[in-house]
Structure to design on (714 residues):
């Protein structure tokens, strides 16, 4: 994928002429965004997850979210099937065949945790017209600000992971998504889901450290016992002792769509767990913003175009004798009686 | 010498009351939406956050509204004065289409009361394609009303003002060509960021030019569509020779569009998806056959003077452009959100859309009967 920018004329010529199609427009792609300096993140290790859902309940508590009881006449307990306007975090189950063996694709099962991935180059931030989605320049946390959101739901439409959700049943509904417990982190507390996770399947830390930890896990010998950190990586809590899984030799989120600060490890392939795998190494905003910026480079393009148009129109309106805009005598009063 | 004149006649006819009734129903639906929330009347869900209120009322509504833009382009930019008799009614179609689309956005916004943040320097986010669309559309609505102003001024005999306006009108006309060029292409760019969520049959970096050209086409199609309906329904004389010419323009642009569309599909190697057996493929062919129909019907010069063929071609083009937009944003959209999601508009959603179009018809009837809009040879 060529990343170099070519000039405005070339793109518009190609775009309008259509001769060069897809590749020409790639010339307009903007640079990919880089990981912020103090990026914090999460490593979710599907093989360590025991499906206890303690993180779901802690998430609801920490963020004051109501329980969700779909299809139950009497609400007994919180059972959301997906993230929604009432649920920021959900543990899902992959099952196949007899579903006997953990972390096995065939006749097995595996857990998966879904919430915002805090993309390095987030679509939701790129599309929001009023900066109601922001990415912290230091920590990289992607936050939502309902007090300025207009509810256009472009973030919902464009998020490649299907994360932001709107509250349709509320006359004054708002967008909901995981904000990495930014309110807790501001007080020096780690995100609620990582805090309560008994096995360290949800592990908090800096993205740099988490990447090293994921490399350590990829070196592990399958079925040997190891210690896995819990809560915050390097936070000093006693670890969790478990056997290393048959890890896929890939950490999801290191490259996908320009990278994500929440990363995944698993023994079951990621598409089976619901993550898009057939995706480029750059975020989609590099293309959409690239096209937009190139075409309207600092509004210069439109300004030049406008002055050209004004000139042509001015010349042409003068030439019209029967013109609507330059001759009023003939057209007034005739049929008004 | 040509003139424009109101056609007069009774305003409160049966059709008028019929459309008024549809409009009243829409108002009731709106009240429900604002009291109980979007979920109470729409089938929008966590997988499909955008439904027909966005895609039909706004995207297709403004594309229909490109009549003014399309004709202005011919008349002013390419200096084809012979199309001039069509300008007023085309402008009016644009004015209604855009004004109502602008209103429809407000019904769909989940937090409409914070709409003002779109204009606040501290909040606006210049990378957002939607911001540009919002600004351009708002500006263009104003431009359209100013462009149409001479018609009001004539009606009320304000010649002085009318002449003063004429002197600066050329800037407005230029803006009236620039703004739609920008936002109609950006309505295509808006889908680019959805990436893999939109089928390769529609997801392409050529979305901006394809949306722009198809919007122009819909504009050119709306002119004969409206003219022929008016001549039948309101017993107006028909400008057959002009309609023949504009059909010729539409034909050329359609061919260009189709070449670009299929060249892009071939280039990206995406045409294979058109031969799978699923809804995407079916809708792809419906869409593109509707683009091909006018090419076949209007290929011969002689057929371009046949009002029936012109009319069928125009309807076909309007449908084609509409389905192209629905396909891109709804049918071809396969949400990344977990779970299986479906979207088909609710009765209330459809009735609101019908109500908005009815309102346009009501306005049209009022305007052509009382203002000098339609052209008299
Ligand atoms: S996962 Fe979606 S909501 Fe979260 S940062 Fe990325 S684009 Fe935004
Ligand atoms: S719904 Fe709100 S947060 Fe999402 S893109 Fe629109 S204004 Fe921004
Ligand atoms: S980081 Fe906080 S908001 Fe996000 S899933 Fe974990 S507990 Fe929920």
């Amino acid at each position: 994928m060529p990343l170099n920018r070519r000039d405005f004329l070339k793109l518009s010529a190609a775009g309008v002429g259509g001769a060069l199609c897809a590749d020409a427009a790639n010339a307009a792609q903007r640079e990919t965004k880089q990981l912020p300096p103090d990026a914090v993140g999460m490593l979710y290790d599907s093989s360590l997850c025991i499906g206890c859902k303690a993180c779901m309940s802690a998430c609801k508590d920490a963020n004051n979210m109501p329980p969700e009881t779909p299809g139950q006449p009497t609400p007994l307990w919180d059972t959301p099937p997906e993230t929604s306007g009432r649920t920021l975090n959900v543990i899902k189950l992959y099952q196949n065949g007899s579903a006997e063996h953990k972390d096995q694709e065939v006749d097995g099962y595996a857990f998966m945790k879904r919430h915002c991935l805090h993309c390095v180059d987030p679509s939701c931030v790129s599309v929001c017209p009023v900066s109601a989605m922001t990415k912290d320049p230091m920590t990289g946390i992607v936050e939502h600000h309902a007090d300025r959101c207009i509810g256009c739901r472009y973030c919902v439409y464009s998020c490649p992971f299907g994360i932001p959700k709107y509250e349709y049943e509320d006359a004054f509904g708002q967008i909901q998504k995981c904000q990495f417990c930014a309110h807790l982190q501001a007080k020096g507390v780690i995100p609620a889901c990582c805090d309560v996770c008994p096995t360290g399947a949800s592990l908090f830390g800096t993205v740099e450290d988490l990447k090293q930890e994921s490399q350590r896990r990829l070196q592990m010998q399958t079925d040997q016992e190891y210690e896995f950190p819990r809560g915050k990586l390097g936070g000093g809590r006693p670890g969790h002792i478990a056997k290393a899984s048959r890890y896929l030799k890939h950490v999801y989120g290191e490259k996908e769509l320009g990278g994500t600060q929440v990363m995944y490890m698993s023994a079951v392939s990621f598409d089976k767990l619901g993550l898009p795998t057939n995706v480029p190494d750059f975020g989609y905003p590099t293309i959409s913003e690239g096209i937009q910026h190139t075409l309207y480079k600092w509004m210069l393009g439109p300004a030049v175009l406008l002055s050209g148009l004004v000139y042509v129109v001015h010349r042409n309106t003068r030439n019209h004798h029967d013109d609507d805009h330059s001759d009023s005598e003939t057209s007034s009063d005739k049929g008004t009686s | 010498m040509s003139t424009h004149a109101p056609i007069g006649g009774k305003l409160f006819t049966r059709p008028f009351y019929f459309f008024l009734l549809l409009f009243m129903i829409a108002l009731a639906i709106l009240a429900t939406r604002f009291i109980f929330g979007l979920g109470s009347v729409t089938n929008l869900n966590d997988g499909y956050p955008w439904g027909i209120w966005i895609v039909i009322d706004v995207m297709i509504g403004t594309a229909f509204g490109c009549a003014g833009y399309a004709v202005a382009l011919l008349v002013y930019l390419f200096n084809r004065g012979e199309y001039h008799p069509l300008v007023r009614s085309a402008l009016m179609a644009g004015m209604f289409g855009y004004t109502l689309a602008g209103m429809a956005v407000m019904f769909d916004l989940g937090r409409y009361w914070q709409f003002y943040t779109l204009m606040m320097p501290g909040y606006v986010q210049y990378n957002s394609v939607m911001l540009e669309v919002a600004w351009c559309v708002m500006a263009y609505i104003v431009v359209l009303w100013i462009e149409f102003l001479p018609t009001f001024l004539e009606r009320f005999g304000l010649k002085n003002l009318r002449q003063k306006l004429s002197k600066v009108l050329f800037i407005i006309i230029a803006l009236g060509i620039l703004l739609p060029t920008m936002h109609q292409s950006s309505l295509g760019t808006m889908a680019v960021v959805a990436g893999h969520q939109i089928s390769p049959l529609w997801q392409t970096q050529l979305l901006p030019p394809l949306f722009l050209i198809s919007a122009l086409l819909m504009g050119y199609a709306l002119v004969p569509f409206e003219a022929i309906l008016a001549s039948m329904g309101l017993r107006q004389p028909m400008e057959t020779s002009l309609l023949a010419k504009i059909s010729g323009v539409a034909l050329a642009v359609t061919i260009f569009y189709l070449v670009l569309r299929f060249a892009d599909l071939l280039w990206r190697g995406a045409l294979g998806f058109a031969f799978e057996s699923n809804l995407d493929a079916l809708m792809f062919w419906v869409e593109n056959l509707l683009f091909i129909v006018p090419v076949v019907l209007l290929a011969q010069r002689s057929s371009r003077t046949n009002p029936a063929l012109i009319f069928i071609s125009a309807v076909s083009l309007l449908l084609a452009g509409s389905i192209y937009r629905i396909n891109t944003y709804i049918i071809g959209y396969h949400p990344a959100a977990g779970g299986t999601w479906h979207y088909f508009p609710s009765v209330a959603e459809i009735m609101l859309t019908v109500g908005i179009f009815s309102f346009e018809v009501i306005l049209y009837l009022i305007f052509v009967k009382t203002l000098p809009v339609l052209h008299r040879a």
About this structure: The domain at 44-343 of chain B is CATH 1.20.1630.10 (Formate dehydrogenase/DMSO reductase fold). Residues A 58-59, 62-63, 88-89, 115, 178, 180-181, 191-193 surround iron/sulfur cluster (ligand 3) (CB under 6 Å). The two ends of chain B are 8 Å apart (CA to CA). The mean pLDDT of chain B is 90.
